Each structure stands twice: as C-alpha cells, then as structure tokens.
Amino acid sequence: MFSANISVMPSKRDYYEVLGVKRDATADDIKKAYRIHARKFHPDVNPGNKESEEKFKEVNEAFEVLKDPQKKAQYDQFGHAPFAGGGAGAGSRGFGGAGGASFENFEDIFSSFGFGDIFDVFSGGRRGRGRRGGPTDGADLRYDLKIALEEAFGGTVKKINIPRFEKCPTCKGSGAKPGTSPKTCEKCGGTGEVRAVQRTPFGQFVSVRTCSMCGGEGKVAETPCPECKGAKRVEKTRTIDVRIPAGVSTGSHLRVEGMGEEGTNGGYSGDLYVVIHVDQHPVFDRYDNDLYAKTSISITHAIFGAEVEVPAIKGKVKLKIPAGTQSHSIFRVKGQGMPDVRTGKRGDLLIRVVVNIPAKLSSREREILQEYAKIAGGTEAKVEKGFFDKFREYI
C-alpha cells in the first residue's frame, strides 16, 4: 500500500508575481522579464546587498520553473508543491556562486548585459546545458478523486487505477530488441549533439543542435524492441491504495511519491498528485471545519422550549431549545463539526431552527388561535412583544 501525505504549501511568493508577468505570459515575455530582474538584482551589480541577493535567488528560482513548459504546467496545476523538496531548482544541475544561479541562467545574465556572443566564444558554444542523453525524470501525474463527506470526516482508503508510462519490461529500457545493444550514433559520434562552426572577423562562433538521428541520446537501436518500438517505455495501468486522512476538503491534494511516470536513462520517477473533491451532502453544508444543517421544530416547542434530536455527521445529538425561540435562529453545538486535517481538532455544528407552522388545524386548535388573535389584536397588540411571547402568555 502506498501512503499519501497532504502537501503543505510553502510560504513563497507567486512565481508570476516575482517576475512581474501575467499567468498567460508567453515564453518570450517570461525570459524578457527574467533578464530585466536578474540584471537589476545581480550580486555583481549590487555588491554586499543581501536583500538584492535574496531577490536574485527568488527571481532565478521562479524562472527555473516558468521557462520549462512541463514545470510551468505543474506549477499552474499544483502551485509550489511539486518543487517543495528543494525549490524550483530541485533536480537541476546548479553551480555555486552568483546566488545559486544555474549555468544556463548565468548565460542569460551575460546576454542581458550584451555579452552573449562573447560567452559563446569562451564557452565553446556548450552553454552549460549538460550532457545530452543523460537521465530524464518522469512527469508528475494528477488524479481527481471524488469522496463523500462521511469519508472526508473519518478518513478512508480508496483503490484507484493509474495509467502511466513505465520502463519496457522486454528491453529493460534500452529500446533495443533483446539480444541486441544500442549502437553509437554515427552522425554525432555518441555526443547527442551536432556542432556547426562559423568564423567571423570577431572570432569563432559555435552553434550546437540536438542530433536529429538519435534525438540527443548518443545511441540508436538498430533493431528496435518489438514491444515499445524503441521508445524504452510502455503504458501500464497500476492499481494502488491511497489513504485519505480525516478532515480533507475539496482542493486538498495528496502526494504519492514515485507513482508518476518512470524516468528514462536512470532518471527519477515522477510523483502522483491526488486532488480531492468532496461531494455535496444532502443534509450538511461545510464551511472550513464547521458544518451547517437545518431542522424543524413544532410551534409549541418554540414557545415553551424543548430538548430535540438534530442530525450530526455521525449519528444524532441533543439540542436544547429555549422557550421563545424564533424561527431561523441558529444554535451552535461545539465539537460536532469536521476534524482539522493537521491537528484533528473538530469544528462546530451550527443548526438553523425553522418553526413548523401547521398547514391543517383541528377545530379546537382553530378555536384557541382565533381567540388568541382577538386578544392579540386588542390592547395586547400595543405591547412590543414577539408572537411567541404573547402566545405563551395567552396559553
């Protein structure tokens, strides 16, 4: 059984706010905003300024996520949760100094100062993107799960089916037919990159592109695996048990580590995020950890008071109705609401009392009410008292 824990959202600023762009900003808008902010807060521009250094790190972290379409999609769906294990750079290859900027971002800073071409010359055109064909982490997955309010109250275990890509069992993730091995790509010589050199009066410029033959892997399967057709992964459906803790609400998300899609070339598997949707209840409405319900009482209970049973999320509880209760009065029953998902402390149950006016009356009941109406319409009507006060005095 796989355990799932509620993700606690870190107290971080919204990445779009950090870069000063809208949520529908294009990749070019994001990159442009990053360059402006990186140049503004770069430690070399603000030596010894700790505040600028922290802002530079924040800008860099936001850009690490929003520049990557896959990470950006995860952030738009789940917020900071998928990156809580180490910030936006978790899983990326960063280097120390310059506020923890990755090598690729450091290049962007050079470009923002107008030195991008010089950087190309001195770096040999590599641009610090790391070895192609290396480990690639699998994608995170999302599963929307509906549960009843009673299940959210007590917690439950749900069995769910997850379709995901896994390492091909036939070729063990090599992409080659069993008994054969991938060969070094002839076009790129196993580097996964094709380099083009251009000479200019200002120096030598090098452009680097992903090899079109091996897709950057550096190796090609001459005889592809018959099951995965060389893709190295196949789609499988896994059935897992997810433990739902008591107190979850709509929008809560549970993280099941490693149950996303499997990585390739030794990369880590992604995570599964189970997003909870609590169905509407026929009796109770929920606001935070409080529950709201409605019950009817007779006119005599409203006038003289009584102790009645009212619905609770687990069975029924007794509620004392004081004499002279007005219709639509709300009473609070402490500790009869939903449990807090972190502390377990329960909220309250709030009951709205509606006085039930009988639609049909016996002849005796009609006679008494008519007599009361005559009295209430006389001198008693001038006294500022409620209906139930006057009726109780009459009875």
Any overview of this molecule?
It contains ten helices and 16 strands. The chain is of the alpha+beta class and 395 residues long. It has four domains: 9-130, DnaJ domain (Helix Hairpins, Orthogonal Bundle), CATH 1.10.287; 131-177 and 228-279, Urease metallochaperone UreE, N-terminal domain (HSP40/DNAj peptide-binding domain, Sandwich); 183-220, no CATH class; 285-394, Urease metallochaperone UreE, N-terminal domain (HSP40/DNAj peptide-binding domain), CATH 2.60.260. A four-stranded mixed sheet has the order 1-9-10-2. Strands 11-12-16-15 form a four-stranded mixed sheet. A two-stranded antiparallel sheet has the order 3-8. It is elongated and about 110 Å long.
Short description, anyone?
By secondary structure, the protein is of the alpha+beta class. Helices cover 25% and strands 26% of the residues. It contains ten helices and 16 strands.
Radius of gyration, in Å, reads 34 Å
Unreliable segments of 5+ consecutive residues: 1-10, 85-131, 379-385
> Largest beta sheet: what is the strand line-up?
1-9-10-2
Number of strands: 16
- Termini Cα gap: 66 Å
Based on Cα principal axes, name the global outline: elongated
CATH fold description of the largest domain: Helix Hairpins
What is the secondary structure topology, with strand pairs?
Blueprint: E1 5-6, H1 15-19, H2 27-41, H3 50-66, H4 69-78, H5 103-112, H6 116-123, E2 141-147, H7 149-154, E3 156-167, E4 183-184, E5 193-200, E6 203-210, E7 219-220, E8 233-244, E9 253-256, E10 272-278, E11 285-287, E12 290-298, H8 299-304, E13 306-311, E14 316-321, E15 329-333, E16 349-356, H9 363-376, H10 387-394
Parallel strand pairs: 2-10, 12-16
Antiparallel strand pairs: 1-9, 3-8, 4-7, 5-6, 9-10, 11-12, 13-14, 15-16
Helix pairs in contact: 2-3, 2-5
